[in-house]
């Protein structure tokens, strides 16, 4: 099965052919660690966790690296405000990031390099760029990349260098030879942290950091480089110029960029006050809800984090977990040895698995995967019959459990005990509807008493009341079960 990936560089889907047979190298731009990360910052980790898992499930050896930017103006500004060393700030928020990452239940990446660990490599790459005529040193020790020395500048973002230059001017006292030139090394400022270099004490520019870390961990080329769409220009464009200017060969085979998060029709923005940290979101909702919201839409589409978007995620998860809870009940009650699932269910599972795999091979089309998950839920629910668990019903449940275990591992979803998680989801839905669990339990118990007394009129009346409240009922030999209708 050929894997196709949408490549930002060519703006089309391409068949994936790795640089080295059987191996995949992935570098994803990680966080700048000066504060808690917002909900949008974890879209990339969730998406690339899935991509790494998918490649590994197809037999590839994957090296997946995401960095920490621990030298940055915002880190320095916060350190100055708090009157501490900048590394105190960066290490604090690296720890906080890792807490949120662990809460999301994502697998650790292969490596998380820090800029402070790669300063020698950064200096060496800058020296090489100077030697190759791609960079120059200003009088005060600032080193700048000469953008016009790189013929392919603009090829990733599809921007014309002359259009970029139009309207740009070199201001009096500025050290640039061209307005488009950007900093590779910045001279130290009074009171700010600095590191030694051949051009004097200072610190690296943002763009050179990733180029140097990729070179240190992977060499001159990598298969996949990821990041948010907001990084295409100038960050990734400048990475291309630096790395290809250093080594004279294509830097990245496939550029993969994820889209932004919106709250309804509004982008997340400090100016309108709707920035929400991942810590806040995960404290209010379950990690499964966050991952569902990210993966239920294609990674190149905008993800909706409005209240409506959250409600859709809760309802979708509830449908799946309701089926998984039924699976658990069948397996727990079963005594006969299951053989094979009934033909119609087996056919539905096989078809869903094949279609889901084809969807993943088509640029990681997770919305189509989710549609197939629901197809299996429908087929399993249709196979459920009241009464004693038989060998056939046990085999059905085991097959569905295996299907969701396999896809759950790949997506890092469906990791919670079904009944307990379903109760949490129901509590969220009850809160949305303004309903009280104890009151519903009492009404269900009252209806059960009427059923036991064969007072069908009162039993039906209470059922109708519960349905009007948005409660779905199921009568079993063990009693009446209820859940919030989805």
Outline:
This protein is an alpha/beta fold. The chain is built from 16 helices and 15 strands.
Question: Can you walk through the features of this model?
Answer:
By secondary structure, the protein is an alpha/beta fold. The protein has three domains: 4-258, Rossmann fold (3-Layer(aba) Sandwich); 271-433, Isoleucyl-tRNA Synthetase, Domain 1, CATH 1.10.730.10; 435-486, no CATH class. It has helices spanning 43-57, 73-82, 86-103, 119-131, 161-165, 206-218, 232-247, 278-284, 287-295, 307-333, 343-361, 366-383, 391-411, 418-433, 437-452, 456-469, and strands at 4-7, 12-15, 23-28, 61-66, 135-137, 143-145, 182-187, 202-204, 222-228, 252-258, 261-263, 266-267, 303-304, 471-476, 479-484. Strands 4-3-9-10 form a four-stranded parallel sheet, sandwiched between helices. Strands 5-6-7-8 form a four-stranded antiparallel sheet. A hairpin with a 2-residue loop joins strand 14 (471-476) and strand 15. Helix 9 packs across helix 10, helix 10 (307-333) packs antiparallel against helix 13 (391-411) and helix 10 (307-333) runs antiparallel to helix 14. The protein is elongated, with a radius of gyration of 28 Å. The two termini are 36 Å apart.
Structural class: alpha/beta
The strand order across the widest sheet is 4-3-9-10
> What is the third-level CATH name, the topology of the largest domain?
Rossmann fold
CATH superfamily of the largest domain: HUPs
What level of helicity do the residues show?
40-55%
CATH class of the largest domain: Alpha Beta
Tally of individual domains: 3
CATH architecture of the largest domain, by name, is 3-Layer(aba) Sandwich
Poorly predicted spans: none
Which descriptor suits the 3D outline?
elongated
Strand content: 5-15%
Query: Helical stretch count?
Result: 16
**DSSP summary, beta strand count:** 15
Distance between the termini: 36 Å
CA-based gyration radius = 28 Å
Calculate the mean pLDDT score and round it.
92
